[in-house]
């Protein structure tokens, strides 16, 4: 399995920095190219560019009370969640798209289901 990763194009893990302005302050975000590609895809889904997406993610996270001490790590997790939700069929295109609240509810139900012991199995 490692060969699949080792044999990939090295440009995927090369990183570069993008500077953007958020709430009047200039900040820089350094990510690997593959993450920038996924962020571009996420932004395009919502008819935004990447700086607009990052600004919205940052502001909505702060509004929810999240501590974004490591915004770059948060963005990497957002990318992985996007890919995971797509693979699970929860992120759909067009008229089949599920609302965010429904996706979150389905995930919460799945987490509860996994936490319960199977019938006949001790805790």
Write up this protein.
- It is a single chain.
- The chain has 123 residues and is an alpha+beta fold.
- It is 53% helix and 13% strand.
- It is built from five helices and two strands, in the order αββαααα.
- A two-stranded antiparallel ribbon has the order 1-2.
- Strand 1 and strand 2 form a beta hairpin.
- It is globular, with a radius of gyration of 18 Å.
- The model has no long low-confidence stretch (mean pLDDT 88).
* Percentage of residues in helical conformation: 40-55%
**Alpha carbon gap, first and last residue:** 35 Å
Largest sheet: 2 strands, antiparallel
Low-confidence stretches: none
Instruction: Tell me the structural class.
Output: alpha+beta
Radius of gyration: 18 Å
Which sequence of strands runs across the widest sheet? 1-2
**Arithmetic mean of pLDDT:** 88
Secondary structure tally, helices: 5
DSSP summary, beta strand count: 2
Give the overall silhouette: globular
Sheet-strand content, in percent, reads 5-15%
Order of helices and strands: HEEHHHH
